[in-house]
Amino acid sequence: MRRSTTPGLDLSTASQSDGRRIRKVIPRMEDYVLIESMHVAGMRALRHAKPSRVAIRRLICGTAAIVALASNPSIALADDDRQARMIAAAAAETQADRNLPEEWLHSLDTIDWHSLPFRWALTTRRGSGRRQIAIFSDPNCPYCRRFEKELEQVDDITVHVFMYPVIRAQSVTQSKSVWCSRNRVEAWRALMLRDVEPTAATDCNHPIEELLALGRKLKVSMTPTWFLPTGERYKGAFNVRDIMPLLDKSASR
Question: Side by side, which strands form the sheet with 233-235?
Protein backbone atom coordinates (compact mmCIF):
# COMPACT_ATOMS: atom_id res chain seq x y z
CA MET A 1 0.00 0.00 0.00
CA ARG A 2 1.48 3.33 -1.02
CA ARG A 3 1.27 6.66 0.71
CA SER A 4 -1.47 8.78 -0.80
CA THR A 5 -0.62 11.73 -2.99
CA THR A 6 -0.70 15.23 -1.59
CA PRO A 7 -4.23 16.51 -1.01
CA GLY A 8 -5.16 19.74 -2.70
CA LEU A 9 -3.80 19.40 -6.21
CA ASP A 10 -7.33 18.87 -7.50
CA LEU A 11 -8.37 22.51 -7.32
CA SER A 12 -12.04 21.71 -7.74
CA THR A 13 -12.12 20.15 -4.26
CA ALA A 14 -11.49 23.39 -2.37
CA SER A 15 -14.86 25.04 -1.77
CA GLN A 16 -16.23 27.82 0.41
CA SER A 17 -17.71 25.23 2.73
CA ASP A 18 -14.21 23.79 3.17
CA GLY A 19 -13.05 27.26 4.15
CA ARG A 20 -15.75 27.53 6.79
CA ARG A 21 -14.69 24.19 8.23
CA ILE A 22 -11.10 25.39 8.38
CA ARG A 23 -12.09 28.38 10.47
CA LYS A 24 -13.46 26.04 13.12
CA VAL A 25 -10.07 24.41 13.68
CA ILE A 26 -7.79 27.44 13.32
CA PRO A 27 -8.16 29.70 16.36
CA ARG A 28 -6.11 32.60 15.03
CA MET A 29 -7.84 34.57 12.30
CA GLU A 30 -4.59 35.78 10.75
CA ASP A 31 -3.50 32.21 10.04
CA TYR A 32 -6.77 31.40 8.31
CA VAL A 33 -6.44 34.58 6.25
CA LEU A 34 -2.96 33.52 5.13
CA ILE A 35 -4.32 30.25 3.77
CA GLU A 36 -7.42 31.73 2.20
CA SER A 37 -5.52 34.62 0.60
CA MET A 38 -3.06 32.25 -1.06
CA HIS A 39 -5.92 30.28 -2.55
CA VAL A 40 -7.93 33.31 -3.69
CA ALA A 41 -4.89 35.12 -5.12
CA GLY A 42 -3.94 32.04 -7.05
CA MET A 43 -7.42 31.61 -8.49
CA ARG A 44 -7.41 35.21 -9.69
CA ALA A 45 -3.99 34.77 -11.26
CA LEU A 46 -5.20 31.83 -13.32
CA ARG A 47 -7.62 34.13 -15.13
CA HIS A 48 -4.65 35.74 -16.83
CA ALA A 49 -3.17 34.17 -19.93
CA LYS A 50 0.24 33.55 -18.34
CA PRO A 51 0.05 33.39 -14.55
CA SER A 52 3.39 33.68 -12.80
CA ARG A 53 5.04 30.66 -11.22
CA VAL A 54 4.79 32.31 -7.81
CA ALA A 55 1.03 32.77 -8.22
CA ILE A 56 0.61 29.13 -9.17
CA ARG A 57 2.64 28.04 -6.16
CA ARG A 58 0.48 30.17 -3.89
CA LEU A 59 -2.63 28.61 -5.37
CA ILE A 60 -1.37 25.06 -4.90
CA CYS A 61 -0.08 25.67 -1.38
CA GLY A 62 -3.25 27.45 -0.26
CA THR A 63 -5.52 24.83 -1.79
CA ALA A 64 -3.48 22.01 -0.29
CA ALA A 65 -3.82 23.61 3.13
CA ILE A 66 -7.58 24.04 2.77
CA VAL A 67 -8.24 20.52 1.56
CA ALA A 68 -5.83 18.91 4.02
CA LEU A 69 -7.27 20.67 7.05
CA ALA A 70 -10.88 20.27 5.95
CA SER A 71 -10.49 16.55 5.34
CA ASN A 72 -8.23 15.80 8.31
CA PRO A 73 -9.16 17.78 11.44
CA SER A 74 -6.58 15.76 13.40
CA ILE A 75 -3.90 18.16 12.11
CA ALA A 76 -5.62 21.15 13.70
CA LEU A 77 -3.42 23.49 15.68
CA ALA A 78 -1.52 22.15 18.65
CA ASP A 79 -1.65 23.91 22.00
CA ASP A 80 1.70 25.57 21.40
CA ASP A 81 0.61 27.04 18.06
CA ARG A 82 3.46 25.17 16.35
CA GLN A 83 1.31 24.42 13.34
CA ALA A 84 0.17 28.03 13.14
CA ARG A 85 3.78 29.05 12.73
CA MET A 86 4.21 26.42 10.03
CA ILE A 87 1.24 27.82 8.13
CA ALA A 88 2.75 31.29 8.33
CA ALA A 89 6.14 29.94 7.22
CA ALA A 90 4.55 28.19 4.25
CA ALA A 91 2.92 31.45 3.21
CA ALA A 92 6.18 33.36 3.53
CA GLU A 93 8.12 30.82 1.48
CA THR A 94 5.83 30.51 -1.50
CA GLN A 95 8.35 32.33 -3.66
CA ALA A 96 11.03 29.70 -2.99
CA ASP A 97 11.64 27.05 -5.61
CA ARG A 98 10.44 24.17 -3.45
CA ASN A 99 7.66 21.61 -3.40
CA LEU A 100 5.75 23.51 -0.72
CA PRO A 101 2.50 21.53 -0.55
CA GLU A 102 4.37 18.27 -0.03
CA GLU A 103 6.77 19.76 2.50
CA TRP A 104 4.06 21.69 4.31
CA LEU A 105 1.77 18.69 4.67
CA HIS A 106 4.66 16.56 5.90
CA SER A 107 5.60 19.21 8.46
CA LEU A 108 2.10 19.15 9.95
CA ASP A 109 2.34 15.42 10.54
CA THR A 110 5.85 15.27 12.00
CA ILE A 111 6.71 14.11 15.50
CA ASP A 112 9.64 14.53 17.86
CA TRP A 113 11.65 11.37 17.18
CA HIS A 114 13.49 11.61 20.50
CA SER A 115 10.20 11.62 22.41
CA LEU A 116 9.39 8.05 21.29
CA PRO A 117 9.61 5.57 24.20
CA PHE A 118 12.16 3.22 22.64
CA ARG A 119 12.19 1.12 25.84
CA TRP A 120 8.85 -0.25 24.58
CA ALA A 121 10.14 -0.97 21.08
CA LEU A 122 11.35 -4.28 19.66
CA THR A 123 14.64 -3.18 18.17
CA THR A 124 16.70 -4.96 15.52
CA ARG A 125 20.06 -3.62 14.40
CA ARG A 126 22.05 -4.77 11.38
CA GLY A 127 25.49 -3.54 10.42
CA SER A 128 26.19 0.04 11.46
CA GLY A 129 22.50 0.70 12.09
CA ARG A 130 22.87 4.21 10.65
CA ARG A 131 19.51 4.03 8.85
CA GLN A 132 16.69 4.19 11.38
CA ILE A 133 12.95 3.63 11.25
CA ALA A 134 10.18 3.29 13.85
CA ILE A 135 7.13 1.26 12.81
CA PHE A 136 3.71 0.93 14.42
CA SER A 137 2.73 -2.59 13.46
CA ASP A 138 -0.14 -5.01 14.13
CA PRO A 139 0.60 -8.76 14.01
CA ASN A 140 -2.53 -9.38 11.94
CA CYS A 141 -1.78 -6.65 9.41
CA PRO A 142 -0.68 -8.24 6.10
CA TYR A 143 0.82 -4.96 4.92
CA CYS A 144 2.91 -4.79 8.11
CA ARG A 145 4.27 -8.25 7.43
CA ARG A 146 5.06 -7.38 3.85
CA PHE A 147 6.77 -4.15 4.88
CA GLU A 148 8.92 -5.82 7.52
CA LYS A 149 9.96 -8.44 4.96
CA GLU A 150 10.99 -5.65 2.59
CA LEU A 151 13.13 -4.10 5.34
CA GLU A 152 14.97 -7.41 5.68
CA GLN A 153 16.71 -6.50 2.43
CA VAL A 154 18.20 -3.30 3.89
CA ASP A 155 21.70 -3.32 5.43
CA ASP A 156 23.03 -0.94 8.08
CA ILE A 157 19.59 -0.35 9.58
CA THR A 158 18.00 -0.08 13.01
CA VAL A 159 14.32 -1.06 13.05
CA HIS A 160 12.24 -0.10 16.08
CA VAL A 161 8.88 -1.88 16.11
CA PHE A 162 6.14 -0.53 18.35
CA MET A 163 3.48 -3.19 18.62
CA TYR A 164 0.10 -1.60 17.94
CA PRO A 165 -2.55 -4.35 18.24
CA VAL A 166 -5.72 -2.70 16.94
CA ILE A 167 -7.06 -4.96 14.20
CA ARG A 168 -8.59 -7.72 16.34
CA ALA A 169 -8.56 -9.12 19.87
CA GLN A 170 -6.10 -11.83 18.82
CA SER A 171 -3.57 -9.09 18.06
CA VAL A 172 -3.56 -8.04 21.72
CA THR A 173 -2.97 -11.60 22.91
CA GLN A 174 -0.19 -12.15 20.39
CA SER A 175 1.50 -8.87 21.31
CA LYS A 176 1.40 -9.67 25.02
CA SER A 177 2.86 -13.12 24.34
CA VAL A 178 5.65 -11.62 22.26
CA TRP A 179 6.53 -9.16 25.02
CA CYS A 180 6.50 -11.95 27.63
CA SER A 181 8.81 -14.14 25.52
CA ARG A 182 12.39 -14.75 26.62
CA ASN A 183 13.60 -13.21 23.33
CA ARG A 184 11.00 -10.63 22.36
CA VAL A 185 12.64 -9.56 19.13
CA GLU A 186 13.00 -13.10 17.85
CA ALA A 187 9.42 -13.97 18.86
CA TRP A 188 8.16 -10.97 16.87
CA ARG A 189 10.30 -11.76 13.85
CA ALA A 190 9.16 -15.39 13.89
CA LEU A 191 5.53 -14.25 13.95
CA MET A 192 5.82 -11.58 11.26
CA LEU A 193 8.35 -13.19 8.92
CA ARG A 194 7.63 -16.91 9.34
CA ASP A 195 4.07 -16.99 10.72
CA VAL A 196 5.19 -18.78 13.89
CA GLU A 197 2.85 -18.01 16.78
CA PRO A 198 4.38 -16.95 20.13
CA THR A 199 3.83 -19.43 22.95
CA ALA A 200 4.76 -17.47 26.09
CA ALA A 201 2.15 -16.84 28.77
CA THR A 202 0.64 -13.36 28.70
CA ASP A 203 0.70 -12.63 32.44
CA CYS A 204 4.00 -10.72 32.57
CA ASN A 205 4.32 -6.98 33.08
CA HIS A 206 3.79 -5.60 29.56
CA PRO A 207 3.32 -2.11 28.01
CA ILE A 208 0.52 -2.99 25.56
CA GLU A 209 -1.97 -0.49 27.02
CA GLU A 210 0.72 2.18 26.99
CA LEU A 211 1.53 1.38 23.35
CA LEU A 212 -2.13 1.70 22.40
CA ALA A 213 -2.30 5.05 24.18
CA LEU A 214 0.89 6.16 22.40
CA GLY A 215 -0.58 5.31 19.02
CA ARG A 216 -3.73 7.28 19.79
CA LYS A 217 -1.65 10.23 20.98
CA LEU A 218 0.35 10.21 17.74
CA LYS A 219 -2.87 9.80 15.72
CA VAL A 220 -1.76 6.50 14.19
CA SER A 221 -4.85 5.68 12.13
CA MET A 222 -3.57 2.71 10.15
CA THR A 223 -0.86 0.07 10.14
CA PRO A 224 1.85 0.17 9.21
CA THR A 225 2.52 3.78 10.11
CA TRP A 226 6.21 4.57 10.33
CA PHE A 227 8.49 7.44 11.25
CA LEU A 228 12.01 8.51 10.37
CA PRO A 229 14.47 10.33 12.66
CA THR A 230 13.51 13.57 10.93
CA GLY A 231 10.05 13.10 12.47
CA GLU A 232 8.42 12.52 9.10
CA ARG A 233 5.39 10.22 9.07
CA TYR A 234 4.57 7.71 6.34
CA LYS A 235 1.80 5.16 5.94
CA GLY A 236 1.66 1.87 4.12
CA ALA A 237 4.06 -0.82 2.92
CA PHE A 238 6.69 0.70 0.65
CA ASN A 239 8.94 -1.56 -1.37
CA VAL A 240 12.66 -1.46 -0.73
CA ARG A 241 13.35 0.51 -3.89
CA ASP A 242 11.14 3.38 -2.73
CA ILE A 243 12.11 3.41 0.92
CA MET A 244 15.89 3.38 0.46
CA PRO A 245 16.15 7.03 -0.69
CA LEU A 246 14.05 8.12 2.31
CA LEU A 247 16.19 6.14 4.75
CA ASP A 248 19.41 7.43 3.22
CA LYS A 249 18.24 11.04 3.21
CA SER A 250 17.17 10.79 6.84
CA ALA A 251 20.45 9.14 7.86
CA SER A 252 22.49 11.90 6.22
CA ARG A 253 20.94 14.70 8.28
Answer: 122-126, 157-163, 131-137, 225-227, 233-235
Domains of the chain: 11-108 (no CATH), 114-251 (3.40.30.10)
Could you tell me which of 19, 201, 226 has the C-alpha nearest to residue 116? Answer: 226
Q: Is 187 exposed, middle or buried (0-12, 13-18, 19+ CB in 10 A)?
A: buried
- C-alpha atoms less than 13 angstroms from C-alpha of 223 in its C-beta half-sphere: 25
pLDDT digit string, tens, across residues 103-155: 555 555 788 999 999 999 999 999 999 999 999 999 999 999 999 999 999 99
Strand partners, 133: 159
Contact criterion met (CB below 8 Å) for 198 and 177: yes
Q: What share of the chain is helix, strand, coil (3-state, %, to 5)?
A: 50, 10, 40
**Burial (Cβ within 10 Å: 0-12, 13-18, ≥19) of residue 253:** exposed
Q: Please state, in angstroms and rounded to a whole number, the distance separating the CA atoms of residues 208 and 234.
A: 22
Overall pTM surpassing 0.85 (yes/no): no
